Every structure is written in C-alpha cells, then in structure tokens.
Amino acid sequence: MDNNLIQYIDDHREELLALGNTLFACPELGFKEFKTAEHLKKWLSQYGIKVEKEFDITGFSVSIGEGSPHIGILAELDAIPTPGHPFADPETGAAHACGHSTQLVIAVGALTALKETMKDLLGKVTVYFTPAEEFTDMEYRKSLVKEGKIRCCSGKQNMLAEHLFDDADVILHFHAMNSTGYRFSVGSVLSGFIYKKITFHGKASHAAALPDKGINALNECTLFLNAVNMLRETFRDEDVVRFHGMIAYGGNTVNSIPDKVIYECYVRSVNPDVVIDLNRRVTNAAECCAAAIGGSVTVEDTPGYLPFHQDETLNKVVYEHMLAFAEPDEILHGEMSPAAGDVGDVCMFKPVIQFGYSGFEGAIHGKDFAIRDPEEVYIVPAKLLASIVADLLEHPEKVEEVKKNYVPHMTYEEYMNYLNG
Predict the structure, then answer these.
(1) Which residues does 92 contact at the CB level (< 8 Å), separation at least 6?
(2) CB atoms < 10 A from the CB of 320, how many?
(3) Element (H or E) spanning 104, and its range?
(4) What are the pLDDT digits (tens) for 301-335?
C-alpha cells in the first residue's frame, strides 16, 4: 500500500465528500446525465485533467500517463427511477438509489491521487464515465436508436460496439453492496437477462352490456402469469433464475373489455443457456394463453446484459489489497447474484473485476437507500482502488499474467449479432 496515495486521499477528504453530496443530489436517467458530466469535468479540470473522448451523448473518458500497461476504470453516471426517494428528481423520479454517484467520487479520488503522487507514472490509466447502466426508460432509448444517436440501449454496449475498450489491458469496476454485514465483496457473479415486452391483443366491447362480444386481453395476461408461475418449480437453485415484471398498460376504461394489455418483464439467470431456454418457454406461454382466450400476442425481445464472471487472476491482486483495509471475515467471496449489469458484456472481451463496497443503508433501488457512512462509501474504496492501480502499474508482470490467462468469450461479430437479436 502506497502511503503517499493514502495520505493524499485523506488530505482531500472534505473535497471528495462535498463532491459526493453534490452528485448524490443530482440524479439523472441514462443518456440524460448532462449536469452530472459537467460537474465531473469541472472538478477534474482543477487538476489539469482534460476530457480525452466524448461518446454516447453524455459519456466521456479521461486519462493520465501513457503507454502500457493500460488500466481502465469504469464509473457509471446514471440514476434509476425511484419516486419517493428524498433526493428524487421531482420531474423524472430519478434518484441515485443504485449508488452510481458514489462510483464517480471513488474514481476521481483515486485518479487525482495517482496523478499527483506518481509523478513518473509508467503506463496509462483511463476512467470511462459510462452512461445508462440501468436498463430503464426504454421507449426513450429506442427512440435514440431509431434516430441514429446510439446503437444499443446501454452505455457499455455502445462503448463495446464502438471499440472504446480495445486499448485497455484490464478493467476495474466497483459497485455499492446491499447491507450484508460485510465491508467488501470480491469475485461475485452477476446474472444475464433478456428484456421482454409482451402485448396481448383482444377485442373491445361494453364490459357490462356486451361482454360476450369482446376478447379480454387482461384475461389473456392473467392466464399467462399463472402459466409462468407454474414454471417456477422447474428453476434450479444453482442457476439463480428470476422472472419478474409489471403490467405497463392494462386497458382504457373499466367500462370496456380491455383490448390491449402490455406486460414488461425480465428473464434472468447466471447461466446464459438457461436465459435462452426460459425465454423461449415464456414466449410459448404467452402465445398459448392468448390463443386459449381467443386473442393474439406480440412478443418483443431486447437483448439485456450477459452474465458477469470476474477475472480470477486479477481478483487475486484486488483481494491482497482489500486485506489492508478489512479483516478476511469482513470480505464476501463469490456471491451468486441475481442482479445484472452491462459490465457482463465487457467481460466477454476483457479481463474485468467488480469489487463491492459498503457503508449504505436501506434497499438498493429503494426509496430508503442512503449513505450511512461516508468514510466507508467514498474514502476507503478510493484508497483501495488507487492502491490496486498503483500496484498494477508498478508491477506490469501482474498485468501480463492476467492477459496470458484470459480468453475472450465472443468475437466482435458474434456480439453484434447477439445485440441485433
């Protein structure tokens, strides 16, 4: 552990906490993070760190140093709709109930410490400020795709399509943890998912006088939900399967037979084969249940995120540095999480890790999500990240070992085919 790095972050503690308060109170949805990006650019400019690239409407990257090894850092800009949260935007309902704003502070804290204390920096460090990790606000995103402003519905998917990570040797990421009693997590596995929009079509008619003349789309949907619930007993625990959704549109008026019902849902698992198989079975259930009532259905599948499996060799380095800040029994290993992130797509092409950090209270994505311990949320993870990066820069043989052991999981052509359905 580099004492100069640690001391620098301690000396700038109040600055970092103030930035954290500013960003936490500035929640914006994906591909709309304009104010957040400006706050960061202004803050970084104080340290002579200029924007290297801008991409995907609000995303941008900054770098220090040059050459190899090239260490990439991911930090996410967006918030998630959480109406009722104390810091929710009154117009959009967006709030940083996912903790993404804290990633931004950790990243800039580590980056400025590296820049100011490692004057003879050997290698390059790039922070990718990535938009739109949360898979939400889909109609807006699809309109951006239609207009040609983006190619995919998530930030990192676009960045992969644009080859923005090609020069990076390894990539480091970090995310808020649920309140589990642990201080850090290492080696967790995230699920992959497919987003489905299922539109049941019926026939409108007077609900009281002429119900026999109608075809009830809500009944189609109700039968479908019962059919899918009967599939749940086939889910294997080791596959960490989740099927969940909501009725986004349920009809025009109580006095008419609903002629259209829209159900949106995710099919999730840590096993990509299970995602594909369950997705097929859910589609079959929708088609058969609609036909049973006399209606029809339209199913739109949008590729979500691929399962995230972390790089084991790189995580050994991460764990060594965690032990400088936490006892072994304070570190959670190998959690199999039903949550997902587009970092899973990045691991198809690059060795990636994502460590978890604590200091929060309430439920992630809940209106009670809050920062309980700013030191644990901002300062300790910034020190940990800076220490990991410094170690990789000072010992390039560790990066070479990671690269030697890593095998890409997809070709670029396969990935683009996947994104295109």
Answers:
(1) 27, 28, 29, 32, 81
(2) 13
(3) helix 100-117
(4) 998 999 999 999 999 999 999 999 999 999 999 99
Which residue type is seen at 359?
G
Amino acid at 345: D
CA distance 410 to 418: 10
Spatial separation of the C-alpha atoms in residues 235 and 223, rounded to whole Å? 20
- Helix crossing, 396-405 with 312-322: angle to 10°? 140
C-alpha to C-alpha distance for 388 and 102, rounded to whole angstroms: 18
pLDDT one-digit tens code per residue, 353-362: 999 999 999 9
Q: What domains, with CATH codes, occur in the chain?
A: 3-188+310-419 (3.40.630.10), 192-303 (3.30.70.360)
Contact between 363 and 178 under an 8 Å Cβ cutoff? The reply is yes
Residues facing 245 on adjacent strands: 265
Nearest Cα residue to 169 out of 355, 354, 392, 387: 392
Task: Read off the tokens for 417.
Answer: 């085919």
In the numeric block, which tokens belong to residue 303?
């590729």
